[in-house]
Design brief:
The structure is a homotetramer of 295-residue chains.
Chain A lengths: L10 E9 L4 H11 L4 E9 L4 E9 L7 H14 L5 E6 L4 E7 L4 H11 L5 E8 L5 H6 L3 E4 L10 H12 L5 E4 L8 H6 L4 E5 L11 H8 L3 E8 L9 E8 L6 H24 L3 E4 L2 E4 L2
Parallel strand pairs in A: 5-6, 5-8, 6-7, 8-9
Antiparallel strand pairs in A: 1-3, 1-4, 2-3, 9-10, 10-11, 12-13
Protein name (chains A, B, C, D): Formyltetrahydrofolate deformylase
Enzyme class (chains A, B, C, D): hydrolase
Family (chains A, B, C, D): Belongs to the PurU family.
Amino acid sequence: MSNPAPADDRRYVLSLGTPDRTGIVARISTFLAEVGGSIVEAAYHADPDSGWFFTRQAVRASSVSLSLGELRERFAEVAAELGPETEWTLADSGERKRVVLLVSKEAHCLHDLLGRAAGGELPAEICAVIGNHPDLADVTRAHGIDFHYVSFPKDPAERGPAFEQVRKLVDAHDPHAVVLARFMQVLPEELCAHWAGRAINIHHSFLPSFVGARPYHQAFARGVKLIGATCHYVTAELDAGPIIEQDVIRVDHSYEVRDMVRQGRDIEKLVLSRGLRWHLEDRILVHGRKTVVFS
Amino acid sequence: MSNPAPADDRRYVLSLGTPDRTGIVARISTFLAEVGGSIVEAAYHADPDSGWFFTRQAVRASSVSLSLGELRERFAEVAAELGPETEWTLADSGERKRVVLLVSKEAHCLHDLLGRAAGGELPAEICAVIGNHPDLADVTRAHGIDFHYVSFPKDPAERGPAFEQVRKLVDAHDPHAVVLARFMQVLPEELCAHWAGRAINIHHSFLPSFVGARPYHQAFARGVKLIGATCHYVTAELDAGPIIEQDVIRVDHSYEVRDMVRQGRDIEKLVLSRGLRWHLEDRILVHGRKTVVFS
Amino acid sequence: MSNPAPADDRRYVLSLGTPDRTGIVARISTFLAEVGGSIVEAAYHADPDSGWFFTRQAVRASSVSLSLGELRERFAEVAAELGPETEWTLADSGERKRVVLLVSKEAHCLHDLLGRAAGGELPAEICAVIGNHPDLADVTRAHGIDFHYVSFPKDPAERGPAFEQVRKLVDAHDPHAVVLARFMQVLPEELCAHWAGRAINIHHSFLPSFVGARPYHQAFARGVKLIGATCHYVTAELDAGPIIEQDVIRVDHSYEVRDMVRQGRDIEKLVLSRGLRWHLEDRILVHGRKTVVFS
Amino acid sequence: MSNPAPADDRRYVLSLGTPDRTGIVARISTFLAEVGGSIVEAAYHADPDSGWFFTRQAVRASSVSLSLGELRERFAEVAAELGPETEWTLADSGERKRVVLLVSKEAHCLHDLLGRAAGGELPAEICAVIGNHPDLADVTRAHGIDFHYVSFPKDPAERGPAFEQVRKLVDAHDPHAVVLARFMQVLPEELCAHWAGRAINIHHSFLPSFVGARPYHQAFARGVKLIGATCHYVTAELDAGPIIEQDVIRVDHSYEVRDMVRQGRDIEKLVLSRGLRWHLEDRILVHGRKTVVFS
């Protein structure tokens, strides 16, 4: 667990997954020691179910004599030794990540993310906000951020061009994260594939309960005693992508649906902002349908 | 929220549900004032969804000049005024409630309830424990409580006589609560009906997620970040009865199924013991598929 | 628990505290029934420690034939019957409450409250924001709200005129709540008295732990495993006023002070916004050093 | 986070703290790789405040060709390289740890720990229970465990011989943990020193709030909205030892002290059992007044 790095605390962050075998930690840590890397965070996970090994290591950038490019080149050799299935990234916490938000009419997640970005809590620049309604244009622009309104036809079968327009607006920023901040539109399969591993959604229920539309109405009808929210990567199967973070809040018989909606907002904001920060800090490794989160 | 009444703090507890209209509170509270009732707890709920009104009121028994029988007789007239749909009970907290537990091999809920009963936390006597395995006989008998072992055939189609034997053993105590403390057997429909409103189950997931068998395995496979437990009244539809209480606990990628099983036990114990206590203190009103819990 | 009333759901809210005796509920509810009041929320608390009784009742305004003024006049007679110590208010949820915020440099509570007010979550108008630093002027004005900068001298002994200026700016709005949203200045005793029952502070620790300055540094030094926040009414004794709400969040050995500061913000926002909403909805009754919160 | 190891899953667990410098992870992991160690858990913490580095690594015992004795001998050389301040242990999860419990009259923590030990949740044998009251003898003996009653004089100044007797009864088992399971006696300074790092207490408040006697009465008087419990190592300064674990539970104005006592028990049991398990699994490293918990 750690804060976005201040300027004097730049880090190189290595994330890696590979089939488990003896000596991986030794190989990686020896490499990091050889380049002078002073480790400030290290986390490991050996998954007995899949037989894979995952790690995230952060070294103080100033302790390493190589450039990021050189470091990547050198580490590629280590990764090659670990085998062809090895997946890894080497990120520079000094690089400001780019984020694009997709919104609809609900303002609370947008307000929350804009406030956190302004306050320096998110290690990212919000490049643009795209809405299928114009309602949230003003608050976005008050933060000096571009807002694009894309009109969506009522008939789902005719939404292809609108989604195409969204794709272009998003891709213009080549973002590290595309956040569906209560966007309320189901992404077409090709966009799910195109933004795989970068598109993050907030669903307003404790998945897998209450998939799909109007989850608070479903929760009310079932009489549950807690409501929740789930932040997950978007995949083609609705609300079934790898879960990043979840949380719940207590309700009781006195809560009408509108009370659940209000209470739920607080959880949605928290869960989405946590999940997005972990994504931007390279703390999440996806394997199959599940996530390893080195929070 | 209140403790089991000590001997000098006996209460009469009125629970009532009726279609909502103006003047119900006035009618009931005027009645209670007329009989001298000193109210120590009062809770109300007007449900806009169903149009019903629910209340629970506890008065100090020593403040009322009438016997419980007389009080019931007198209140029946008030209830009649409120209309034929009115449902009500008038309980005496000085009466020791009777509880029968159904168990299998898992010991944690049994240990927990026996410990709470011994410590005076549950306003009830545990009359008997019935197991479809003999494993928990010793710990039960160490508390001076009868244990009955009922052998269940492997073939579900042949379990009728075993359930009949359970029914007889349970009904011999005319219990206020029949607790399925990780019993692991699906009650036949006629037993669900026979013990309606008295049979309480603990399901080891956050319902409606992971209905049915092996919920921790289902949770592991889905990669959820919280696991839960649900205490509910038993109805003929599996794991779909009115929910009394739920809670969750955090897990992460490092939790194997056996870790979830261990962590989950703590939540199962808490949720079941809370739900059972509320039931025994007449804090739960069931309406349709939902509960009003005046905790 | 209930939402701010929509226009078609206006309520009259009666809050009352009085020494306990038999018949209070009957007297009040009979009165409400006589004026046709349809009760949508009712809560009671008989406090054995102080011997006082507290209640909050909300009736649908449209069900009552009298004006608010007439209702108050009529109820004053009932209150008089209940004795001279009786304290009560009768509020109209249709009246938009006025709030003034005092801030310093920290933006998160301000962002959060502005967002909630804009989203209709707070049943109030934020009339003005006053800062002892100019930093938060822009975000305030972007919401169309007046910002006043009042310069505070370094020497605490010389701050009298600055506080006097703050007092005038606040009192110009005759606000229902004066919120110290991370104001970081200790109010002088006469202001505490002047705004008694209306001044609400958020303290960034789980009181009574870590009173005074730099509570996260104190928490870090002590090695606690949870950090918290406390919303309380301001009184002359520092951080010792009646507690309205508290909550905590988990930390561990990996949290530096700056991580606690960031995590703590999420709890501060939640706790302050809950406490303020309850205050504005007349859900809080103060008795001595403690609160009764009918949430 | 991991379960007590089953017989076929024995582990060697290395815990180490040392002043931080580059290459420590490489040195340790290279050593483990050289002896064939298959790492199943690894955790690291570099503490910028103290400048120390902490790690815990668990390797599958069956993957290592050396005996535990040989492994310790070989690792001593590595530790020597890391410098004279290095503190380390190498434990065998196959060794059953020994625990002695000190109790008074309150039964809930004892019930809970006996139940967990019986259910295989605690990787330990409870060797003996010592009480300064005889009340809990029967439940202890029903589990086949020795109970020793030691009478404590009323005058604290005369309790020396009683503590001496407790010391002898405890030390006869050379236990890995001496648990004050609501013992309600302040250990004399020499016993704190004698059992340093092994004596674990459960305090029934969220420390540092409400140090000393009757914390629930203190919490009630202050009107807090959450009550808590704290598991910590015992040191000479009352309730001020390194904190292992804490948790809280919500209360409100309706809770009398006796309700807090009952609710608090659930938290005390959870917090103590978690802390004790982590201690027995060698997951806790103490540095100065704080703990690193690799849970």
